[in-house]
Amino acid sequence: MNALQLSDSDFRALAARLTGLAAGYLATLTRRRTFPEVSGQASVNAFSEALPEKGLGPAALDALAAVLEFSRPPSPRFFGYVLGSGEPVAALADLLASVLNQNVTAWRSAPAAVTLERQVVEALAAALDCRGYHGSFCGGGSMANLMALAMAREARLPANASGARPGVVYASSEVHMSIPKAMALLGLGRENLRLIPADACLRMSPAHLREAIAADHAAGRVPLAVVATSGTVNTGSIDPLAEIATLCREHGLWMHVDGAYGALAALAVPERFAGLNAADSLSLDPHKWLYQPLDCGMLLFKDAQAARVAFSYTGDYAKSLAEDPLEAFAFFDESLELSRRFRALKLWLSLRYHGLDAFRRAIRADLHHAQLLAQQVAASARLELSAPVALSAVCFRYLSGEGHAPDGDRLNAAILRRVIERGRVYLSNASLGGRFVLRACFVNHRTTEEDVAQIVPEVLAAADEVLAAR
Ligand SMILES: Cc1ncc(COP(=O)(O)O)c(C=O)c1O
Predict the structure, then answer these.
(1) Which mutation among 232, 234, 258, 392 tests ligand 1's pocket best, with the greatest number of atoms within 8 A of CB?
(2) What distance in angstroms lies between residue 82's CA and the mean position of ligand 1's atoms?
(3) What predicted TM-score, i.e. pTM, was given to this entire model?
(4) CA-closest candidate to residue 110, choices 310, 309, 344, 314
(5) What is the pLDDT of residues 312-330, one digit of tens each?
(6) In whole angstroms, what separates CA 448 from the centre of its chain?
């Protein structure tokens, strides 16, 4: 046997040990700290052992204990960023996907995986009332947004052959950082991203958008696309999609919806997402609000031909040999990626196992948990809500009583650090109107009302400790 080969019995023994480790870990999630007790240096020390020249065999797995110990667990009381909770059926599917090791480039290379991916993408689109959309999985919302703007650029100001020309893209002041990054990478330039002011609910103002488009036209610039956000990263606000779609139609602009955080909630509360299916392209992140293990992003688009115009550039060695349209299909004609993992397997298996209704109910529970926290914050004399709660992100501040804003910001940042050190709940932060705010985001299928009820007492206890130490 080749030195890298495993016998059937060795594989079974390793797999049993690994799944045992995973099951044991899952069983302890509720009682684990929400952030490990570890410093940067301690984490470096834990993994500083040199890679062995001679294999350790099964003893190699012993070091996994430190990996588990120093990981930030997918706890029921993790409310940071916008990070899904890692549904375990999907995690098991990921193991099988790696064993199968399909390269999901084209049907020619991976018939089952390509067919499944196309079917899962189209079924999910239909469930979001975007019937007829096509698309593909990708690493995440940032990649989906980049691909969407590449499609927009190629549809309105073709650049693939001779290079980028100046064009203007519009988004609200609350836009995710991946959009300016995409502007830079596509040669459009971050300065050609117009940040349209948001209203009191942090939604893009269509009146300001109209004015900005007119001003650019008048100045001889070329408006290209609008990025509407359905679920902004800070507060979950949803831009007025239908009104933005009307403006896009009037001016011939590409409409992209960045739904990486929020749009999957349309499975549960479709009425909040009217106009979603007017988008030319739509970014989704099942690794956020469908609780899938990373990575699992997705880009949907209305017109597959627009994707091919943007991405199809095929080396002879990869060209299809088939006449049959299903067998000739290649994702690399419609995506930036060539080698691709079998991401569809986990979402497909997880949806089949639990059923769509279970996901709708989990999303509704997240929405409910956000409202509960908002009430608990409002009921505390020492805290204030910092923004309306449109979906499942709750932004709030400890009232410092210090008139000077930077002092309040420093205090809230210190409270956040202390909350994380205490390890009972995990929150993150946002910047709203230049102020530092605490933020809890619910995209966690493990969270209960009892978990939510720990947030306010934890923040107040952390504040007491910070104030006492001053
Ligand atoms: C609105 C929005 N867009 C894009 C992204 C980027 O997604 P990813 O982290 O999957 O690249 C995020 C991440 O939080 C987001 O909230």
Answers:
(1) 258
(2) 8
(3) 0.97
(4) 344
(5) 997 777 677 788 999 999 9
(6) 22
